[in-house]
Amino acid sequence: MVMVKIRGIYATALSSLLLRKGFTIVQCSTTMSKRLSIPKTIEVADALIFDDEDAAQLIVRGKPKAVSMLIESLREELPDLIVKDWMTNVYSIHRGVVIDTLPQGVKVSVYGGEGFLPEKTLQVGDEVTVTLVKPSFEGKPPLLTRRIQVVGPHVKLIFGGWVSVSERIKNPSRVRQLFNLGCMVKPNGWGIKWRSTAVSASTEGLMLEVKELMKVANEVMAKANKVKAPSLLLEGEQAVKIYVPLEAKIKLDNIRGQVTPTTPKHHLIKSWGKPFAAAIDLVEKLLEEDKEAKLNLAMVTNILLRKALRVGSRLSIIHMKPDGTVISLTPGVIEEVNYDDETLKVKRKFNEGGVYDGLGIPKEKGDYGLTELSAKAWVVKTTYYSANGKIKGEYYSISTPAEIMPRKAKYMDLGVDVVKTASGRVQVLDVDEPKLWYAKGYISKWLMDKALNEAKRIEEELTSR
Which residues lie below 8 Å from residue 225, measured CB to CB, with a gap of 6+? Predict the structure, then answer.
């Protein structure tokens, strides 16, 4: 039985989904306990799921086996999820070697990759024992520290640290109890930080955990003096980032709607920012508390869409890739909006110089493009025009349906593209990219096949014209 703690805007939907898959939800809120008719257990989670900063993605952290089971179960229901696994685990401990000096610190080679250590006194070739305290998924190295951390379910032992208590523990009396206990059991040369789970743990259990973690710490430190860098000393927790595309969000809307009133596009609109999230919360809370209230939820969503998207407004376009690459395309101005079909036409102007990707034709003065974005299509189409309005070519980027929001739209590029030149030649490009991303585990086989089939469909359609 895998125990999971879930926080954030996806909590209700994911909890409901995972309960059906046989997982146990622990440390849930009072609201969640009531909605799903589950007990408010205080057991320690095997894995934690929470939103990132803008609620566009999920972070999953925990025991490697538990994380693997979660990903497999989520993909069975949401096959379009994009999964980026970091090669080294958070709270893993390494014997590393400095390979480069940087203005703010040094780059360290560790088992499975590289990390950044913010210390300026080290030189290339120096060996260090480090803990990975913050993973990175955007191409930057993870953050390392020489203040070794050995982490258990309720407590962190921190080399050279002091006694502290998680800020998530709000009860002043319990904070004092834990602080005093920490001062009493703190090993020489080590600090203690009580994690939020310590709030309901027994004193005897906490004391035993500190003792056991200290044994692990001593073993790690002894091993560090014997191994050759780079070497892994302690496994730590696996950390995975999951991008939730629009279709997955809609499925989660439907799952949430089975247990509590939910507006269409709930999870998308909640990620738009506080004013829109507050509007959604207000409407849904009214319906949850007053079962007799009459309110058209689809109309609420439509009103918010019309407020967010207006002809003549400027729109940024965020082009993402499964490997974590994020490209901000040339922005444009919205020329057409179809609120019912959820489609946009955006006019974008290009600078002179260079060539258009895939088409191989020069960018000339006065060129512009019309980019068509849709919440219901697996393609982003851009038609390129010369200054006099003559078509120069068409580019079809096979992508997840666009997430259209105030002042920007974003989508996940699935690698394969189709182009049509002004002369009528049709060509499929980068057909191996979806296969590569599937091989790396970023996308599911279902999503790889979806991308390749969509490219084939568009190629056949363009060729038959």
Answer: none
- Choose between 264 and 418: higher pLDDT: 418
C-alpha dihedral sign at 361, 398, 243, 29: positive
Q: What percent of the chain has pLDDT over 90?
A: 69
Side-chain half-sphere of 132: how many Cα atoms within 13 Å? 32
CB 59 within 8 A of CB 241: yes
Interatomic CA distance for residues 417 and 429, integer angstroms:
5
| Rounded Cα gap, residues 80 and 94, in angstroms | 34
| Preceding peptide of 187 cis, ω within 30° | no
Q: Nearest Cα to 3, choosing from 69, 55, 58?
A: 69
Q: From CA 46, how far away is CA 63, in angstroms rounded?
A: 6
Record the tokens describing residue 403, joined without a space: 């997430």
Q: How far apart are the first and last CA of the chain?
A: 56
Q: Would you call 332 exposed, middle or buried from its count of C-beta atoms within 10 A (0-12, 13-18, 19+)?
A: buried
Task: Give residue 341's pLDDT.
Answer: 83
How far apart are the C-alpha atoms of 208 and 225, rounded to whole Å? 27
Residue 312 and residue 305: Cα distance in Å, rounded?
15
Radius of gyration over alpha carbons of the chain, in Å? 26
- Kindly report the backbone phi and psi dihedral angles of residue 423, in degrees, each rounded to the nearest multiple of 5, phi listed first: -80, -10
Q: How many CB atoms lie within 10 A of CB 302?
A: 15
Instruction: Please say if the pLDDT value at position 309 is more than 70.
Output: yes
As given in the structure block, the two tokens for residue 20 are: 């059906």
- CB of 73 closer than 8 Å to CB of 242: no
Per-residue pLDDT of 126-143, as tens digits, reads 999 999 998 876 667 899
Q: Are strands 326-338 and 343-349 parallel, antiparallel or unpaired?
A: antiparallel
Separation between Cα atoms, residue 293 and residue 287, nearest integer Å:
6
Asked whether the predicted pLDDT for residue 291 surpasses 70, the reply is no
Taking the whole predicted model, whether its pTM rises above 0.90 is answered as: no
Give residue-wise pLDDT tens across range 351-387.
988 888 888 899 999 999 999 999 999 999 999 999 9
- Opening angle at CA 281, ends 378 and 408, nearest 5: 35
Contact 198, 169 (CB under 8 A): yes
